[in-house]
Amino acid sequence: MSLADFLSDLDVLVRDATSAFAAAGDPAALESARVEFLGAKSGRLKSVQKGLGQVDKTDKPAAGKRFNEVKQAIESAHQQAVAQMAAAVRPKTQSRQFDPTTPGVHPRLGRLHPITQTIDELKEIMGRLGFTAVEGPEVEDPWHNFDALNIPSEHPARDPLENFYLEPQNAGTSGEGRGPGEKTAKPPLSTLLLRSQTSTVQIRTMEKMRPPVRIISCGRVYRPDTADATHYPMFHQIEGLLIDRGVTMADLKSTLRLFARSAFDPDVHIRFRPSFFPFTEPSVEVDMSWQGGWMEMGGAGMVDPNVLRAVGYDPEEYSGFAFGLGIERICARRHQIADIRELYKNDVRFLRQF
Amino acid sequence: MLVSWNWLKQYVPLDMPVEELTRRVMMSGLNHESTVEVGGDLVIDLEVTSNRPDCLGHLGIAREVAVLFGKPLTLPAASPKENAAAPVDRLVNVRIECLDLCVRYTARVIRGVKIGPSPSWMIRRLAAVGIASINNVVDTSNYVMMECGQPLHTFDFGKLQGGQIVVRRPASGETIEAIDHKTYPLGPDMCMICDARNSVAIGGVMGGAMTEISDQTRDVLIEAAEFDPVSIRNTARQLNLHSDSSYRFERRVDPEGLDWASRRCCQLILDLAGGELAAGVVDVGQRPPQRKPIVLRLPQIRRILGIDVPAERVREILVSLGNQPQPSTAADSLVVVPPSWRRDLSREIDLIEEVARIHGYDAIPEDVGVPMVPSARRHEDRVLERIRRVLTSLGYDEAMTLSVVDERTSQSMSPWTDAEPLCSRMPVLRGADRLRRSLTPSLLAARRTNQSLANAEVELFEIARAYLPRPNALPLEDLMLAITSGRGCDEVKGTIEAIFEALKIADLPKADDADLAVLDPGAACRLQFRGEPFGYVGQLNAEALKQFDLRGATTVAEIRVAPLIEAADLVPRCAPQSPYPAVTRDLNLVVDQSVRWADVAATVRQSGGPCFESLEYRDTYRDAQRLGADRKSLLLTVALRSSEGTLTSAEADAIRDQIVAACRQKHSAELRA
Predict the structure, then answer these.
(1) Do A251 and B370 touch (CB under 8 A)?
(2) What pTM was estimated for this model as a whole?
(3) How many angstroms separate the CA atoms of A22 and B110, rounded?
């Protein structure tokens, strides 16, 4: 083998190796390139080295010198490629100096709406007292919103100005919703309305189950109030209902006290003032002691025997209580919100406070 | 109800401080609003619930005070001197043609009155309760109304044609000029008081100008009647004429008190304006029905109230409130006939409430042991909490918007139904009368609000119901999750996928082309889940941005929550994990543009065999020159692992080849070197 041929092989080898190491995109590729060129058994450097024995004696010193240079060049090219790959794998942040005095990196967190937080809190407390959450429709028929709740047809609470009645549906144009819905076998419905209280859910629940009943229902209700700092035509209620044998007003007062002690202050007392609701009798306004005075909590009472009868319960066998609280009011108090209209404006600066 | 302390004093001795009186009546059902001093008198504002019209007069309040403080109640005299020589039925004839609107009508006549100013005591008392003085006859009828709660009307008898009162519905197109000298058109179900020719008053609501008492009036007809409450309410509303009189008729008057009020009014007119009262009364219509006795079983008091009230105390409370005790046939029970002014008392439970409110609710303990029962959070509440947690962790703030929108917003998009929205007869708020069929437009409005405040990073979500109309049924109230975001379509779609991951739902929704007019077709998709419509994700197109008045790229998404609740696996089961290391293989599959990732992924999963562990999408590469315009290259990584031992390189390659072969067969995929 001539010296020229040998030196030419070396040149090809160094060029191929350098470009192979540079081209390797991941550690596995680099390793296979290393094996190809620097492999101890059958690497290309090894096979070129075999050609050194066939070079003329006189040319050997020059050939050996060049071989050693090439071997070093390939080895250092490999080292360099290994180092570059390690640097590329290392996370960027670590390449900079860590400064413990600057803020860490964290994703922005969203916030739950204060009404959701309040409902969760109330459900949690009432859940501990054994009340299971139930839900019902917001668009109601007069039976569930009025009749079954002992509100007869001539009652002022049914006045068109006190409720959001819906326009009758034109059966010809209203098609089936695209979403898969429940099947209803009921006859055509009379005038529908947006429910004015969550008590409707009591009726729907009692129609479906036998006592004992211990439920709460939370949700949106609608009344034609002019929007101001403490009113909004849509608001949320939490309604509790307990029906069983031997349930008394003392149970009602004690349950509400347990609730108020859990939600507000361990040292509160409950006061009842007589009131009037068609679906409870006796009916009371509930106050809790607060900062030396009394603060209104909501309405409550013993479920009227007519309501029990309307859902097929025997009022001689069962008795029970119901109570209803306004969630906006509780929420506003918890978070010191001065104007409840803020709750529905959805200014993210407002929302992110909670 | 405004109550004058000095006036009240006439019927019951008031030797207690006013604060004590207001506290006690508040604790027995008359909520105390305020007490104001007016010219040496105290005016107390008490809230009277709609079941207690008996408290819409000073006598009713006095009766409550007498019961609460154990004081005697003094009724004023109502026995006017009559002129026996002139029977009233020779002077006036009354006929009711609409007994459904007017149950009963009584008339008395006083002749020869002298109209003049009222005495100062009467003017003061009326002023205290907010009624301006007119003259001695009109003031007297108002005074008696505020005394006993029965509205009265006085007519100038000389101007009543034919000495006749006819109570009837108005003729079609009829109008009346009322005492406020405005002319009102009359509806078909209004109850008109008429003489032989004309309407002279809107019964129970307002008198007419033609027969009002003037300085020239000599003879007076005194009307005490009972009108149908619903008719009065409708009439007052239709004419927008709400008066002290209509307020009381709407809540029903004491049927037995009618004649007393009439006599009381006559007596005061005779005292203050002179004249002669014609003998007797013309009394037409239905007599009040006999009240039925109510049986109160004493043990029921403990059963409902949870406390014992001694039998003697129960009896004392009920009798002092005006209930007439009857002989009882059973031991342990009381029988009473309720007073005529308490129509709200007809059942045992009503009497129990009377006992409770007078005995005092403070006697009911607030610390009895309520028995424990098992209860758990509902599955859907847990799912919703988990969804909310994912969204807040990913930086979305929860919004809450009104369920009802205006027509323009409602029409802007309706991805769930073609049916017209349900519509409220009156707007819930500023023109908003359509029950929303989608949450997205409301959230876009919230985004606009934030944009106008120059708030950075407005990432909002809401979970609420859409109202999807159904024929002859309540609407489907479908719970929706809507998102509006400044992030890209991929990211918002990824948010939905993260929810699936959090809920441990293995199968992801399938994406189809979006057909919503507001979305950019190039950056939008409809989603299907388990064969049902599930939602959509997409970027608003330029036109929609303009329509919603938004600047900058906006991505919206809305998905149904019910399928998530159904599919969520909140208590996943543990599967054994192989102790051997995983091997990965990268694949670069060239397929037609029309081939969907989800289909390729399904093939990869199916063909991987028992050692297939997971599949990860890496990228899609398109290059018209190297791949051809109708081809794309999908880059993916599969992880393989055996439970038997460490996979060798050759074994892993064999599985990879198996996957590639399956993809080639099903999707004409080629492996790209």
Answers:
(1) yes
(2) 0.83
(3) 122
